Structures are given as C-alpha cells and as structure tokens.
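Hi team,

As requested, here is the filled-out complex form for the beta-D-glucopyranose run. I kept the field names the same as last time so the parser does not choke. Let me know if anything looks off before we queue the next batch.

— J.
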Amino acid sequence: MKKRVLSIMMATAMIATLMMGCGNKETPASAPAADNTPAANTEAPAADTSAADAEAPAAEASGSLADMKVGVCIYQFSDNFMTLFRTELENYLIAQGFSKDNIKIVDGANDQATQSGQIDNFIAEGVDVLIINPVNSSSAETITDKVVAANIPLVYINREPGEDEEKRWADNDWNVTYVGCDARQSGTFQGEMIVDLGLEKVDMNGNGKVDYIMVEGDPENVDAQYRTEFSVKALTDAGLEVECLSDQVGNWQQDQAQSIVANALAQYGNDVEVVFCNNDAMALGALQAIEAAGRTVGQDIYLVGVDALSEALENVLAGTMTGTVFNDHFSQSHSAADAAINYLTGAGNEHYIGCDYVKVTQDKAQEVLDMVK
Ligand code: BGC
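And here is what came back:
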C-alpha cells in the first residue's frame, strides 16, 4: 500500500560541538561561516495558521489517511514548548484526514530507555509512520536503524540528530527526515535585540563591555548549543566587547533557571546587565529571580528568551522582558505532519525540512500573541 520513494539529499551543516562555561567561545573550525547564518527575518510572521484553519485535505488522500496509524514520541510532556507542538500536531493531523483514534502520542518522560521501549511497541503494533522527538539526539542512530529495519518511515522533530546521522539517511535513500528551525538564527536574533539597544544603554556599569549571564537548555538539543553560541556572536560581530559572568545549564526548566539567575545576581549584583536564556520557560524563571532581587527589566537589566510562549509575550508587551524569538510550532508541526503524509502517499521528502524564527520585540509582541493564543 505504501510506495517507498527515493529521497533527494539535501546538505545540512550542523555542528554538535558542545561548548560549556564562560570564556571565549571560538566558533569551531568546521562551523558554518557567519554568512551561512540564516538572514535576519524581522518581517511579519508568516501567515501560517493553526490546524483549525488548515485547508481541507486532498480528497484522494484523506480516505486512506483515515486508516493510517501514526505513532508520535515526545521527549517529555511537561515541556511547555513541546506541549504547544504536540497539541498542534495532533489537531493538524486530524485536519488532514487522520482519525484521532489512530494517532497515538506518548511521553518519553525525559528517559531514553522509556522512549526506546515506546518505539519498540509502536513497531510491534505496526504503525504506518513514526514522528519522533528523541530524548537523546545521540540515540538517533539506534532509533533509525530499528525503524528503518521495520520499513516504517520516520520524521524526527525538534532535537536534530547529528550531521553523520543525517548523511546516512541520504546515502541509503531511507525514508527518514528531520523537521526543525535552525537554532543559530534564534541565537542571532537574541543577540541582535541587545545590540539594537546600543552599548550606552546596556553598559550600565560603564566598563565598556556587555556583562551577561547565560542560562542554557539541555545539551541533548543542539538548539541549546547554537543559541548560546550565536547570541554572543551577534554581539561580537557588531563590534561589542562581552564579559560572560556565568554560564550554566537550566535544562529548559523555569525552576532551575530561577535558582541559577538568583545565585548569579547575588554573586555579581549590578554588574549583570543582560540575561540570555535559551528558552522562554527559563526566561520566566529568570524574571522571577530578577524581580526578587529588586531589579527592573528595561531599566537596570535586560532579558531575552526564545519560543514566544504566551506568558513571555505578555511580559514583552509589558516591558518586563526585553524580547523573545518565535519558535514557530505551527509551521514545524504542520511540516512534520506533511512530511509523514508525503511518505505515506509515496511523494517522499528531502532529508531536512527547515523553517524560520521570528524576532519579537515589544512592537511585534501583540501580533505574535494574537497568533499563538
Ligand atoms: C525549545 C525549548 C524546548 C526544547 C525541547 C527547543 O527548541 O525552544 O523550549 O524545551 O526545544 O527540546
């Protein structure tokens, strides 16, 4: 019933070099040049719509899609961003003609062994296609091998497997692809929002540098590494001197970020001028710590995140966050579902399917809030 189609290779440059801690973070030799960073996209967000507004599926496809079984593995249900993603994914799959009963979404509970068992179960149940947000992107090779051996097409989401792994899919013409945004772009946007304020405004301690603290996401998602690296790179590319006061892993979690930032503020006090958080959940934790320390965003400290969660957008509007970056879960979930459909209909896919981030400062926050709410 399912026709396997050869896919065409599309190169994707990706560096999985993990660089932790403060200090000069050189771009790895093999990293893409600055010119390869996706162009800044500060235009209005793409008019992508939620599943509710999605176009009706093609009549010929929808009949058979209703009988297809989709297995979806999410690394952790409690993740705010992945909750938006999976909700939209399910709604969009249904809008395209899949039956709700045939879509099974499971929680990996941030444990690769648990998730691997779930994948084994999906294979045993004979699902027609798998959409996987791996707990450990470093486990992708093992996951791919067993899914491909079972002759099931596979769409990875959110946590990008390494370059070597993606090359295998192309080299072997496997029905395996990755859907996600290029996190370098989101990091660049974060840095640019600080650059745009001007050194005079940001350099409140007058040492001629941007003194910052960095709160990183779980290194199992390359987004954390890229956002860390490229946010700072945007500052240095703009000719600013930087001073990293603290750089710690908050694992994408609000509570962890709150205590990291509280400690950093206690240690470095007014020298902390900018707080970079790899996502909004952590920025919200950082904001709690900032307020508890009697500091005021926009006046004596600046704070940026990524994702454009509603709560973060409300803060950007109110001026209690300097900015965020829209991590377009509509576009990513729709593309993931479309990729699954393309495998099922025999149309096939490229091995990398990208999307753009959108920079969100106060003037754009309402527009994005209207879209995500
Ligand atoms: C999001 C984070 C999320 C992570 C999960 C990132 O792209 O920005 O909010 O926690 O994905 O892997």
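Two things worth flagging: Residues 1-20, 23-48, 55-62 have pLDDT under 50 and may be disordered. The pocket of beta-D-glucopyranose is lined by residues 79, 81-82, 158-159, 217, 221, 223, 252, 279, 281, 306-307, 327 (CB under 6 Å).

Thanks,
J.
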